[in-house]
Amino acid sequence: MKRLTAALMAALLLTLTACAQQTPCSATIFAMDTVMELSVYGDRELIDEATELIIKLEDRLSVTDETSEISRLNRDGKAELSPDTAELLASALEICDMTEGALDLSVYPAVRAWGFTTGVYRVPDEPELAKLRELVDYSAVRMAGLEANLPSGMMVDLGSVAKGYTGGRVIELMRELGATSALVNLGGNVHALGSKPDGSDWRVGIRDPEGESYLGILSVHDAAVVTSGGYERYFEKDGETYWHIIDPATCRPARSGLLSVTVTGPDGTLCDGLSTALFVMGLERSASLWRSLSGFDAVFVTEAGEVYITEGIEDSFTLSGDYENREIQVIRRAAD
Ligand code: AMP
Ligand code: MG
């Protein structure tokens, strides 16, 4: 019943444009709490199949839907997962390791305590935060094949990686169905299949975290472009701004000196997990992590309005008109 309702809702919200050789087949759907735009050069079936896949993954991964696999795991402390959920949980735990816990799926009780899951915002006091910190430790999540186990009191949330994973799966599906050119935007989480039909790169706008306009443009093909920013979900209280990205070490909104981090690379899950983690880690720690790993590049915007990029995207990132007077600082593998 639930699945049917979700599928019907998505279908109702679906706006389709005609599919022709030179115009993409496009649709706007609402899923995973966000507006998604799918655009693919090919026939209508690609959009239908992609929509079905998104709804299926949402049903499994949502932390707020009481019937999802993740909710079952959180409620019972153990669950037999579908291969999709198990695959994502395992990949996400690897990113938690890679970022030394800056990404920590078990930070969920803190995300809840601040009200970010319901919109009923509050500022927990220090004793409550201390208690919440005791529940945070992704390394205690156990997986054996499709079975996952959590210690008592722990709850996990795949919100930091679910859209990146889903975008990657949608692109993979479109490729399998024969498409060679598509762009899907899952609420600012952008995934490109191939290039535009004329062979040029897709141009993805990167938002100014302090305004509505695009700070810059990243030109990509066959890549994800994922941004995490405090501006995406926040509230203000007594002159302070509190956002939804939580530092697992303090269980408070992460204040690392960054306002947004965009990560680009071929792996959607990795880009999504890292965008959240690098936001927590701040510029210096992120730069050392980038130097020690391959497979991604990043754009950082600091609280002072500075723009830093890693050297792999030096030729593909440009500032847009209003921002051309800002200097781009390039982070290099080896010191100059
Ligand atoms: P994103 O928009 O991809 O940066 O993900 C942010 C979402 O991930 C939040 O809304 C929380 O549900 C969750 N989250 C917040 N902080 C963390 C963290 N440090 N590690 C893992 N998940 C987090
Ligand atoms: Mg993320």
Description:
By secondary structure, the protein is of the alpha+beta class. The chain is 32% helix and 26% strand. The protein has helices at residues 2-13, 45-61, 69-76, 83-98, 108-113, 126-134, 162-176, 268-292, and strands spanning 25-31, 34-40, 78-80, 142-144, 147-149, 182-186, 189-193, 202-207, 214-220, 224-229, 234-237, 240-243, 246-247, 252-253, 258-265, 297-302, 307-310, 317-319, 328-331. Strands 1-2-6-7-10-15-16-17-19 form a nine-stranded mixed β-sheet. Strand 4 and strand 5 (147-149) form a beta hairpin. It starts with a helix and ends in a 5-residue tail after the last strand. The structure holds adenosine monophosphate and magnesium ion. Magnesium ion (MG) binds at residues 160-161, 228, 272-273, 275-276.
SSE layout and pairing:
Blueprint: H1 2-13, E1 25-31, E2 34-40, H2 45-61, H3 69-76, E3 78-80, H4 83-98, H5 108-113, H6 126-134, E4 142-144, E5 147-149, H7 162-176, E6 182-186, E7 189-193, E8 202-207, E9 214-220, E10 224-229, E11 234-237, E12 240-243, E13 246-247, E14 252-253, E15 258-265, H8 268-292, E16 297-302, E17 307-310, E18 317-319, E19 328-331
Helix pairs in contact: 1-2, 2-7, 4-8, 7-8
The structure holds adenosine monophosphate and magnesium ion.
Magnesium ion binds at residues 160-161, 228, 272-273, 275-276.
- Can you summarize the main beta sheet? 9 strands, mixed
Proportion of β residues? Answer: 25-35%
Write down the overall mean pLDDT: 93
- Encode the helix/strand succession as letters: HEEHHEHHHEEHEEEEEEEEEEHEEEE
Total strand count, please? 19
Distance between the termini: 60 Å
Please work out how many helical segments DSSP would assign: 8
Helix/strand class? alpha+beta
Bound molecules: adenosine monophosphate, magnesium ion
Spatial shape: globular
Q: Helical amount among residues, as a percent range?
A: 25-40%
Radius of gyration: 20 Å
Show unreliable segments.
Answer: 1-5
Report strand order across the widest sheet.
Answer: 1-2-6-7-10-15-16-17-19
